Amino acid sequence: MKRSHRDHLTTTLFITSLLVIVLILLFPHVSLAAEEKCFTCHGQPDFKGIVAGKTIPLYVDAKRYANSVHGSIACVDCHAGFKTGPHGEQAMVEYSKVASWACKRCHDGAYRDYTEGSHGKAYNEGKPKAPTCVSCHGSHYVAVFKDTRAPVSYLRAPKELCGKCHHEALETYLEGYHGKTLVVLGYEKSASCSKCHGAHLTKRLESTEEKIAACKPCHPDANENFVGYLVHADENDRVGEPLLFYVKWIMTSLLIGVFAFFYSHTVLWALRDTIERRKKRKRGEKQ
Amino acid sequence: MSQVSESQVAREQLTAEEAGGEEEFVRFNKFHIAMHYLMAITFMALVFTGMPLKYRNAAWAQVLMNVLGGAGIAGLIHRIAAGITLFYFGAEVVYGIGYCLIIKRMPIFGPDSMFPRWKDIKDLGNHIKYFFGRGPKPQFDHFAYWEKFDYLAVFWGMFAIGLTGLALWFPEIAARILPGKVFNVATVMHSDEAVLAAGFIFVVHWFNTHWRPGRFPMDPVIFTGRVSKEELMHERSLEWKRMQENPELMEKKRVKK
């Protein structure tokens, strides 16, 4: 009884894996064959079109697309409502909204997080610069944060994505230990923007509770005092951060003062010693 | 008195000749030598692992970081060296207060003390006059004013760098009592003070003690602990005078061969 049950299970597993392997082997080819129609126009490098009054490139690298994570998905799975032949103006305008509904069909959790985060809220409020999925992940050659070559990768995102809009935040982040070690020196254990602010559920981190929650994954004992640390501190901001500004000012003055005094002390000493030695040598020659 | 000292010098020269070598005197004991070694090695380790973080955008910084094996390993080396620094600092405090002041009862403003006294300020003024050719070179005792400054600067540095470094090393513990902005202030102080220390040691200290004409590339006294009689007579004339007046001290400091 037990044995036959196991046999049954093994057979099922075997057939299932075989099917999966066959599907994996077949799928890209099948789908690519279907895509060929789109690529007759969109596969030409200089293919352009007018969308909302602007001429934009409409070329898609078929090979690169096929090798991307979404390489096995048909064009019309995302670009729904498009037919062969020149598309109507109406359908083309909708392309910017593709992300907001096409992606969620598969990535429901990420999409829900996105709509709850500040980026998604801004988009839904109609702010023109608010990022959608494709703003960070790319559209045709979709990348994830583990892909070290992509702008959305953990190490690159601060400079290549987040910082493109959040200029000041990037600057101050790069001055702090997190930014220095992660972005410039490639230390992956340090915090990237998304580590604290979230990737899909983006947060401004304004309340103390939010800040503590953001610090805790790396600093488990973080408390109210701990999060008073200014991750995005600007030591040149005299009005906003007078304490930091004056500490920096005092330290700089101390450095200049000490160096000015002791460097000239050393140089003058060396000069005098050389002069005295020369005098002695001359006297020695005369004697 | 000068007659006495001259005859003494003559007698000493004789004994030196008998011994078959130049006379030498003790300047630093084994503790001093060990402390300097510890400090020199850990200081350089701290500078080499810390500076690439401060000047991270410079090409050399990234090369140095790669040589060290990345920011993670550099951070580990930095913390090990910092731990040793804390240890030798504690040992120095125990030695200075416990051994020198309490057990040996050495006077705090005495000639062998690292503590600054009025004479040091006068020496500085006269030394600067000498630089401009407006007076004779001042005579120094066991420790000259720039040596005292070198030494005491480490104490100031330990507070500025040591305490801020500890706060940044254990931020969660520091945050139990201190507000978070302390870490911002500590970051600024730690890194600027480090530049001050490195710029001082690698230029002022190295020039003044190791690279002066006639000493280049380094003064071995801190590694051997011994100073020649000639150097003692010329560079530490007041100490030499004290030794001549006190034969017991002379014998005590003489290196027995």
Give a description of the structure.
- The complex is a heterodimer of chains A (287) and B (257).
- Chain A has 287 residues and is mostly helical.
- Chain A contains 14 helices and two strands.
- Chain A has helices at 2-42, 62-67, 75-78, 89-93, 98-102, 108-116, 118-124, 133-137, 157-165, 167-175, 177-184, 193-197, 208-215, 242-286; strands at residues 48-51, 54-57.
- Chain A has a two-stranded antiparallel sheet.
- In chain A, α6 (108-116) packs across α7 (118-124), α9 packs across α10 (167-175) and α10 packs across α11.
- The longest helix of chain A is centred in the C-terminal third of the chain and has 45 residues, at 242-286.
- Chain A is elongated.
- The model of chain A is unreliable at 28-33 (pLDDT under 50).
- Chain B has a two-stranded antiparallel sheet with strand order 1-2.
- Chain B is 72% helix and 2% strand.
- With 257 residues, chain B is mainly α.
- At the A-B interface, α11 and α14 of A face α4, α5, α7 and α8 of B.
Would you summarize the structure shown here?
In chain A, about 60% of the residues lie in helices and about 5% in strands. Chain A is mainly α and about 290 residues long. In chain A, helix 9 (about 155-165) packs across helix 10 and helix 10 (about 165-175) packs across helix 11 (about 175-185).
Mean pLDDT over the residues of chain B: 88
Q: Rg of chain A to the nearest angstrom?
A: 31 Å
Category by helix and strand content of chain A: mainly alpha
Largest interface: A-B, 47 and 47 residues
Low-confidence parts of chain A: 28-33
Number of contiguous helices of chain A: 14
Question: Which keywords apply here?
Answer:
A: 287 residues, mainly alpha, two-stranded antiparallel sheet, 2 strands
Furnish the topology, listing elements before pairings.
The complex is a heterodimer of chains A (287) and B (257).
Chain A: H1 2-42, E1 48-51, E2 54-57, H2 62-67, H3 75-78, H4 89-93, H5 98-102, H6 108-116, H7 118-124, H8 133-137, H9 157-165, H10 167-175, H11 177-184, H12 193-197, H13 208-215, H14 242-286
Antiparallel strand pairs in A: 1-2
Helix pairs in contact in A: 6-7, 9-10, 10-11
Chain B: H1 2-19, E1 24-26, H2 30-54, H3 59-68, H4 71-103, H5 118-131, H6 145-169, H7 171-174, H8 181-210, H9 221-224, E2 226-228, H10 229-235, H11 237-245, H12 247-253
Antiparallel strand pairs in B: 1-2
